[in-house]
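Exercise 7. Given the components listed, write out the predicted structure of the assembled complex. Treat all entries as one system.
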Amino acid sequence: MTVYKKITFFFGVLLLGGGLLVSSSCKKILGVTPQQTLDYSGVYQNISDADAAVVGLYGQFLSLAKQYVLLNELRADLMSVTPNSDKYLQQLNTHSVTTDNPYADPRPFYSVILNCNDILYNFNIMVKAKKMNQDQYNQRYSDVLALRTWIYLQLGIQFGTIPYVTNPLMQVSDLSNPANFTSMSLSQLLPLLLKTMQSLPYMADYTLAPNGTLPALISGYSTQKMFINKYCLLGDLYLWNGQYTQAATTYRIVMEYGTNNYTNNSAHYFNMYKVPNLGYQTTTLTVHYGNGVTANNNLPALIDANNDGWRSIFARSMQDNDFNEEWLWALPFDGSIQPRSPLLDLFSDVNGSWLVQPSQIAINNWNSQIQQNNFPFDARGLFSWRMIAGKPVIMKYLYNYVDPITFQPIALTANSGQDQSKWFLYRAADLHLHFAEAANRDGRHKLAYALVNEGILTTYTDSTSAANNTNTQQTFDQPPYDFDARNGTPIIHENWYRNTGIRGRAFLKALPVTGDSTLAIEDQVISESALELAYEGNRWADLVRVSLRRNDPSYLANRIYNKLVQDGNGQAAAVRAKLMNQSNWFLPFKLQ
Amino acid sequence: MKVFYRHIIVSFLLPVFVLLAPHAHAQSTGAADTTAPAKTKKFPHSALVTGSITDAASGKALAGIQVAYQDYTAAITDGSGSFSLEVPDYDVTITAKGEGYQSKDIALKGRRTVSAGLFEAAYNSVYDVAYLPFGPRPRNQVVHAATSLNTQGNWTRPAEYPDALLQGLVPGLNVTRRSGTPAIGANLYLRGFSSLYATNQPLIVVDGVIFDNNNYGNSIIPGHTSSPLAFIDSKDIENITVIKDGSSTYGTKGANGVILITTSRARQLPTRIDFSAYAGMNFAPAELPVMNAGQYRTYLSEILNTSGLTQQQIRGYTLFDDDTAGNPSYYQYHDNMDWQRQVFKNTMTNDYYLKVSGGDDVARYSLSMGILKDRGVIRNTSSTRYNTRFNADFNLNARLKAYSNMSFSFTDQLLTQQGISPNTNPIFAALIKAPFIAPHVVSPTGAVSPVYSDADTLGVGNPLALINNMQDISKNYRFAGSIGFDYRLASSLNLVTTFGITLDKVRESFFVPQNGVIPDTLAFGIIAHNRSASQVKQFYSVYVDSRLSWNHTWNRVNQLSAALGFRYTQNHAEQDIGLGFNSPTDQFVTVGQGSAALRQTAGDQDDWKWANTYLHAAYGLQDKYFLDFNMAADASSRFGHVIPNSPSIGSYQLALLPSLGASWLISSEDFMSGVRAVEMLKLRATYSYTGNDDIGNYNNRQYYVSQNLLGLYGLVRGNISNPRIQWEQNQKLDIGIDAAFFKERLNLSLDMYQHTTSKMLVFQSFNTAAGIDTVPTNSGGMQTQGIELGINGRIIHTRNIKWDLGITLASYRNKITRLPGDGQILTTVDGATYFTRKYATANQFYGYKTAGVYSSDAEAAKDGYSRMMANGSLVPFKGGDVRFADVNGDKIIDDRDRQVIGNPNPNLTGSISSNLTWKRWSLECLFTFSQGNSIYNYTRNQLESMSTTANQTQAVLNRWRANGQVTNIPKAAYGDPMGNSSFSDRWIEDGSYIRLRTVSITYEVPLKPAFIKYATVYLMGNNLLTLTRYKGFDPESSATGSVFGQGIDIPLEPLYKSVQAGVRIGL
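Answer.
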């Protein structure tokens, strides 16, 4: 061996000696740095690099949109396959997914996680090396860690048991170390994710340009709502974990965002994240009719437009005030910038593949609601899906893609960029429904009922004291359940006075409560969620969460069964039997 | 402390290298001088050997032949061919050589009197010189498996490019020309392949400098490849030596063997001028038998019928309306075109070449210039090469020699788009285009306009527009220059340095017009009516080779030559692409004239560096026993920094690659003196370690790629780095025999080898939760075993008639020995699937086996097989569907029923050569053959799938139409819902062939010595005869150099027959 070493040394010396002929620096002889890609040595050097990492992360995150929508909706009961669907979509529909199913491939989720882990690892180095200051670090680190937590929650509810990776996997040898891939079940995962979120050094939104370095606008799109809302995620984790008071407390922080950040009497003060009713005086997000209260019985007058009414929740620009009062998290796709939205092809029939459609049971649910004017349907159904050329088409994602009146895709020209759409992730309705769910489980049945139905003011108005509202129109509860909606005399305009409730905003009648009120109201919350949030990627999580909470697989299994039965799918009974076993809820995890 | 010590040594070595810098490539300098050595040395005990030298053919005594013992003693034969020579004893070997004759070793084996017959210089002799990396050496002393070709200008094959030229000449070197397009190059596979994902092409060294023959970045012109080797004019080549083992000295670049090319230098001082001119004709290939207008019209209505259209709707199409008067489009749709004839054409080739050489005692030079214009067989295409080369040698003083090699070549190519580019490939369009469509716009009355008709309603462009209005241009140049010095430090100690640079530029552009071409659809649904593109590819390389070489002989019997040196290259490759769309009219053809909003750019840049330290020692004992040791220590920018079991210097890990070879010249032993039949017999064996450094430039580093968020660019991880990434290691064991019998009338060379690749690069997939698809790792292995035989002999050997016959045979078997994961890889290329599995050949075709066509629904129902549609429903097979083999027995025909259906690797390759000379005439023939290789006929798949409205071959006339019909062609079915045309043995054909590769007749014009010293007239033919059962244009084509992609025939310009006539004049 020593001979070998000597030979090596001899050759090495000769090698270096020869090399010095060409260049005087050892590093120059054989060192190269990639030109087309960026070498590790050239990243994470300053705050711009840190921002580039965050921008890249969210750019990559967009690639999860299609899987997110399909896994959460087609596996649940509101979405169905079409004759165009391939066998993999059918597998999602009938819970018979095989590991080669591309829609159930966990790898894209882990690609984003790999970048989260890489960023977190390197941000820690950067802050130690003073390449960014503590505040910059806190904001970015918290955002990236929250995004990773959100992805793990998704993986948990889709796959059940998953590898929990936090290592940046810098070298191939890291891949063969099992310690980097700890396996975790959903029940193990939830407390861990919760703990992670509780540990964040920063919970508020980013400080964007001009006060911060991250841009406030990208290609004309406001970045305000592109980043994950950490409070909402933390609240959701409490909710999943059965910590209802903490969940409600956390949601309440977001619900009071307007109160805390805007001056009294400004629009945002009363409206932001409070599900307000603005009447018919201005453009609003409510279901309403165009020619005044008195003409409410006139169906053609239903406001069905991109800039007014409930439909405009999905069609408004991200710079729009009303949009910002409703939306907490949404990412746009631009028609002229890659990647093109994968959702247009998924939903649209014209210029698209129309791969999924509303389930019959979803359609029936909307059709069985009664409006305040006694019209027997829920207008949100009309806005969520439409019959186009004889085909039921899910519309929420298409309003910026099709002509607002004819619903035909706008002719594409070289620079039109009309095929934009958004990936919807979190809005005030989610917040209120989740708050209601937590409050209900925390013994606040009436409050939950109020938020889901007609709002605080209506529900808490004591008819005996109509003339003086001093001791009415409020919950008289401790935080986080202390809502004050007083409006009138002598107290005018308390900060919750505009809250109209989810059903109120949809111009629907309140629902009666029968039987065990905890369960009945919880059922109402989940049903309302189906009507309000259909196809926005919430349904599967709702069904899993409630089924787990009630320890009742039939809660989930029956709903899937009903969908398949109503769609005329012959496998309905078999699927139900399968889903009665909780372990069959989850997708097979493709290991390699 | 250790570092300090190292610094001392480095500081010591540095001035040595800098001051005494630089080599010549020993390859060319050694043979340059043929003047007799000075006999100054004497040995104490001498003996006298006498003998006679004759002409082997005529038996006549030869006068003036030099007979020598090493550089000690020499004698010249007298008028009776006799000589007497002083030698130290009677066990030595003496050498005889003379102008116009071969050089020959004569082992005395104890004899005091010897006689020998000499063949003419051109004879393929076992005593020929092989040009090895460390200098020329007689073949009978070489320990390695090497083939040396003294091509001497290749005057009989003027238009051949160097790679194609090698076809059939080297046992074990399988040359596959990429296509018939001039200058497109060939894939060279020396002894099969050694790697799945790294290069399998041998290293090419021209005049001592590594010649980078790779393409960095694809051509923007579909189906095109630029081939740097095509820059070299074959007439400049003097010798090509192919080293199949013993390439260890090139370290991690030697895994696939080395081809050493030596270009011509001035041999003599008087000025010599060689001029040659050739003209030739290329013949359009035989057409593929596609349907005529009538047959196609019937097919068309049938296929449309299966697309869901009703008979009535189909009859409504104007193209089916046979009413001359009432149908204004009648003449547009009632032609009868032979579209292939519009694309292929007989064309001319021209070649001119001039070489001037000469010099004086101090400087010698050789300057050559050539023009080669070849037009291929596709109309409006051509390749014109202009090349110059200037080689010079200088004797600067008694100690210092210098030499230089400069070449500059420029190639101007007019091309067309080929391969799988269905909208723009005129060959493909000609095959599928409806024959009844008129090529020009025709008025309702039948008046023909000069304007080409536009792309038709069936979705096929006009081949005439593609031929005449599409532009595809490639202009390339390469400058390769080197200078070197050879400095004699002491009597047998030299310092040799070569410094070379290569500059290469490829400039490509195309324009696809609107008229006559199917438009493309861009992202976001934008229609691209016309398209343009331009690309500039640049390659830049610096090369240094310095060595200290030492030659010494002890006691006359121990010969040692040793060298210790260092090679270094630094390379940069760059690619810049611009794409333009929708220029205002077809007259605006550049990218800049396209719509500004749609313009796209792309590019790539790569850098890599390689350093190689080498030790070479060749020891010979008594001219009978030879031992070669080579060792390389390589470092490279591509290697990782924590390679297990690899030594390192600083942070650089070294590839330590030794080789040892030995040979025993049995025929020179005394006991063989009685075996008169054996002229020469040598046993040799080598064991070498080599490597392959084609492992990607940056896989050892963690890098980041840009990621767009609404137009703002951020960064995301591009990979998981592999700091253990290393060269593939290739161990080569070779055992061979070289022999010559009956006074060299019969020569043979037999080799058996085993090549073992370990640390083979594979793209390994890991835990899904890693979030990245694959990581390149060195976790594969492969083994190739083979046998090669080369025989040549002189069958007729008289004064006036000489007939030489040669045969080469080669066969190999490849086996994967190691793969990570589940031990198998499926690779899909051009619709074909390759299956690579542990313990099996690497790249076998993997698809369905078929057994004819169901003659009726009832017959199909008996099998009860079905196909799963995209939506998951099962549809049973019916009459007229292909009967697939159901491997797993589930009665569903799907991916799980695939099996191995072919192997693109030949069982046997080789050649037969014949050279007959009669007085001043000579006739040379070369047959090449390949046996047992499968070809996936992609083109036929397209032409017999019967799933679209494309025209098909006449084979489909026999298609299934009605229950009970027995045929082997399935029914026509639009969109092929039952997968009848999926990748199956229906498209796999036997690619065996034997081809008359070249034939030439040479006549040396008798001239009295005057101003014109000699004149030779040539008549030549290429590819004149090919015997094969293959149904495509030609069984030889290779669109890609990758292992995955071999044996796929896509629509490329086929190889064609050609003839040339030419004259060479010496002044």
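Discussion: Chain B touches chain A through 88 residues (CB under 8 Å). Chain B has ten helices and 58 strands.
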